[in-house]
Design brief:
- The chain is built from 5 helices and no strands.
- It has 156 residues and is mostly helical.
- It folds into 2 domains: 73 residues; 60 residues, no CATH class.
- The model has no long low-confidence stretch (mean pLDDT 78).
Amino acid sequence: MSILDFTKPVSDAISVVVNTAGRVIDSLHTSTEEKEKLKAEFQKVLIQGELQKGHLTAELTKLHNAEVADLRKLITAEVQSKDSYVRRARPTFTYMGIICIGFSILVIPLVLFFRGEVPRVLELPSHFWTTFIVWMVGYGGMRTAEKFGINLGGKK
């Protein structure tokens, strides 16, 4: 969904107002000349509204483009950083996920075993698994595409 998708409901609302106002003007008990004058004034207001909507859409587009440019600069700065941890920040999420999984599958059962209890695996919440799987598929897929020289939207 685009940031500019708000304009459709606004346009629909304006159409309803225009149609309703047109019927009201037509139903007035005034001369044809006065009705035409009211319709012309109403058309001016509508044109000004459309111009304003176009201006707002252009402003929103500028803001959106500026935000995307800032994000691109940030990601480029991270990748080109001399600090090795900054470059590894995204893989750190993977390492932490693997540590959590290893802890729940290995450490907890071993601790329970040595305490004389029945070893069991600590169940991780479904939110963890969903986030971790989406991360791994996305990150792994992008890294694989990069290694094969497939450009998935970045400039080269």
